[in-house]
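Suppose you are handed a protein chain with no further information: no name, no annotation, nothing but its sequence. What can you learn? This example shows the usual starting point.
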Amino acid sequence: MSDKKKDYNSGKPAVFLDRDGTINEQMGYINHTCRFQLLPGAADAIKKLNDAGIPVVVISNQSGLARGYFPEELLVAVHEKMNRQLAEVGAHVDGIYYCPHHPEAKEERFRTACNCRKPKPGLVLQASEEMGLDPKRSYMVGDRWSDIKTAANCGATSILVRTGYGRGDELYIGPHQEIQPDFKADDLSGAVDWILSHSI
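A reasonable first move is to predict its three-dimensional structure. Written in structure tokens, the prediction is:
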């Protein structure tokens, strides 16, 4: 990822989605495909974005990979399962970007001070550059304050969902944060309905 500032003004608006706790049940580290379970209504919500012609991009920290809790092959298998389950309702994501780094990574190749671990904006900026997207016209949806800060760091509109860690973060983390979400929704369906009511 280049450190040079990019001009994304000609890019398309998109919806960037956190994965765990936003699309699927927050289960801690998903170290087996059986632990991946879509949240109710998540697939239908993504299909609404698909039908509206809005790119959907998954942006996810995966420190379990860095810590050696599971291999990269498992992460690939989890995303294949997600894609299959989305396809069952005619939905899809247009891109999946994840950060495999952590300061305490087991493997040296993952032990680095990166620009892609949320709340840093690297994954969003990489996806925007590769997919022709404009972060400032886009939305970031997640269940953690790191997602809200990621949105702020790349100029996107932020939405906190109360699934996953969201309800607890809203109650115990949010009141002490300078950066606040632009909107709060009970789940991804509510977030998508709000996005679609604000023409992008």
